[in-house]
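Assess the record.
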Amino acid sequence: MKHNHRPKYFTEPGESLWTRCVWDRELASTIDQISCEQFHLAPAALMESAGRAVAKAAVDRGAGSHPVLVLCGPGNNGGDGLVAARYLHDQGCSVTIVVASEVGKKPSPLFLQQQSTVEEMGLIITPWQPGTLAALRLSKPIIIDAISGLGFRPPSSGVLLGILSEAATIAGATVIAVDTPSGLSVDDGSVMSALLKAHETVTFGSSRPIHRLMPGAVLCGHVTVADIGFPKAAIERSLVSKQAVWREVDPQSVLQADPWQQLPKNAHKYDRGHVLVIGGSEGKLGAPIMAGLAALRSGAGWCSIAVPRGQAPVDMPIPVELTVENFFDGAIIDPERLRRFIDERRVAAVIVGPGWIRQCLDLASFTVLRDFASIGGKVILDAGALHNITALIAKQGSLPHEHFILTPHHGEWLKLGDAPTLPPLTPAGVIAANQMTQALGAHIIYKNAAPVIMSPKKSSPIICLSGTSALSRAGSGDLLAGIIGAHLAAGCSLNFAAARGYTLLARAAWMAAQDVGDDAVIASDILTRVGIANRL
């Protein structure tokens, strides 16, 4: 198999230019400690800035015309709440403070300091006991949830469980959480419920895993990241000793890096790249067609689709922009015809699986793809091509790094092999998924409302943002495969292609929703807006 050399017109920006750190509990603690001990920032000053940011969020949500209920725990998170209460009181807001403390748990020194200040100002602090919140009879209050912070580890129990349960019954409340909704683990996105779901979460310095990982992120509402004065040098020094467990995509930066922007006027289709889509089973020919059109709409120069003979109804219209090939002998791919087409038609990226309901790759056809990857080609395995793929890869040994990407949603994740690993939504899941990517030699984008990109390199997983409910439609995964394929054909790395591809898809879905409504968007609506979404 020969290498299809193509000039490369796009210089991809380094990962640090289109991603940013997400601080897990350990990294956040390290940054806080270094800021205070080595850069001599007073912890009370950081708390002051944090409380002011929370107060601003409350004012923005109507604290001047609604009563404010500040729920505090006895730790530093509660201290942030007391500072916010003080600022709101000074602005003329009606503020009630209730403190929940487990028996025998000592308040932090900073909490006691803030408690003394607010009491000196004449504010009353009421200890919580069952029925306290109901007795207040507050109408549509703004609740500031400052009970438990970054150090909390589920499950909720005792006083915390009681006050959260009671607060959740207050009708018409708007909830602002400090750092994270109380009762959630900051490092874990797998939590399925919260007693007091936030409308807004105010956090400091950077986002946390719980704010970005689904499904936990849904419980945080809108996330506001406030700058409270952590020195940039302190953050950089912390990252020397403690690598960020997570990074997140900066949507604007990744979209600005357009792989096709520098194409010369005399560029031809092979400069843009030829994408091949192999897929389709009975009744599901639309999937490879959608993937192929998405590749073209994203910037690919040419797209071919290949489906099993007899799967396409004779009267089914296939867009004239797609060329149709047949590498199948019945339902099985003919490896020599596939190899010959890739060579002769200078294919740059292959997408396998859209529209398949079962695995159609065998050892011979998979060997062709592996040989293609070994001389520079890029391969996306999607949908049916993912079924028990780990066993097929194991027969070949580890894949060539930086050439294969797997694109499972949760159901497909469970079918990757006989013993699927934990999904990358928790610290344990990250470790397990990292081990799997290294064993396979393949990248993975775990698809959900905030997809996670895993790499066989020893690098941080990348969380993709910008998700919208408009993407919860059949066909959106096929569009994503096609968009990623176009980026790979243009010479992008797998991480960048996956991150930019999803961001572009989400932006197109958002644009479609503006025109037809969130609940009316279908895959073709998204497809027609991919090109416009690519123009910032």
Remarks:
- The longest helix spans residues 494-516.
